[in-house]
Amino acid sequence: PPSTHTWLLYQLADSALPTGGFIASAGLEAATTSGIVKQNDLDSLSRFLASSIHTYAHSTTPYVERAWSIVNRGIGGEQSELHDELSVDAAGERRHSNGAQSQSPNGTTTSQEFDPVEELVRLDRLYEACTSSAVARRASSAQGGAMLMLFSKSFADVDTGDRTRTSAPTRRKLTDIVDAFKLAVRRDESPGHLPVCFGIIARCLDLELANATHLNLFLHTRTLLSSAVRLNLVGPYLAQRVL
């Protein structure tokens, strides 16, 4: 039988997963309305898909990886240096997740204790600031909220089978991080964007970082093709062939 990790990947890739992906077309509907993508024109659709996936990969992967790393560090895992440049506060001070000293541009040295929820909120706000489209921000927040709800309702008590990383105390820490971040979103202290929420949940479910980043791109691609079918640009069989 498949391992629990493999089974979780099956579940997360399932189109029945209630992540709110149906609420947005990632710009495909607007591209169709403006004539950039035409019905029964696979070439124009393929060009749009390639451009959208390329843009999405570069704009979200650093946040998925950084959120995963923050949660991992929050439960005592190894610190990842992936996209550590995202760990910058509003004053421009470099923040280190090991609680060591950081230095601001004016040379002042301060000591910062690592708080995973605070770091996640800061990362989430950074994504908000870097996303110029109001429509994209709303869709991302809606899908991020759905991802957090999905974890709480369906996966919070899942044992991934790795006893060294999912012991009862570790699972409690993971749940506490998710609950605290959800509270920050509910209080409008953090927008709860999808890439950040996805990275959080991926680490909580013990997904390897490489699997998490690839799954994030797969889900975006699947959403695009589902929208293409809904907009009658391609049929379901051709959509699966393109995928």
The tally of domains stands at 1
Q: Give the proportion of residues in helices.
A: 55-70%
Low-confidence stretches: 88-98
Largest sheet entry: 2 strands, antiparallel
Order of helices and strands: HHHEEHHHHHH
Oligomer: single chain
Strand segment tally: 2
GO molecular function: nickel cation binding
Keywords: Chaperone, Nickel insertion
InterPro entries: UreF, UreF_sf
Pfam family, one: UreF
Describe this structure in words.
This protein is mostly helical and 243 residues long. The chain has one domain (4-10, 20-81, 115-242): Urease accessory protein UreF (Orthogonal Bundle). Helices cover 60% and strands 2% of the residues. The chain contains nine helices and two strands. A hairpin with a 5-residue loop joins strand 1 and strand 2 (109-111). Helix 3 runs antiparallel to helix 8, helix 4 packs across helix 6 (168-186) and helix 8 (209-230) runs antiparallel to helix 9 (236-242). It is globular, with a radius of gyration of 19 Å. Residues 88-98 have low confidence and may be disordered.
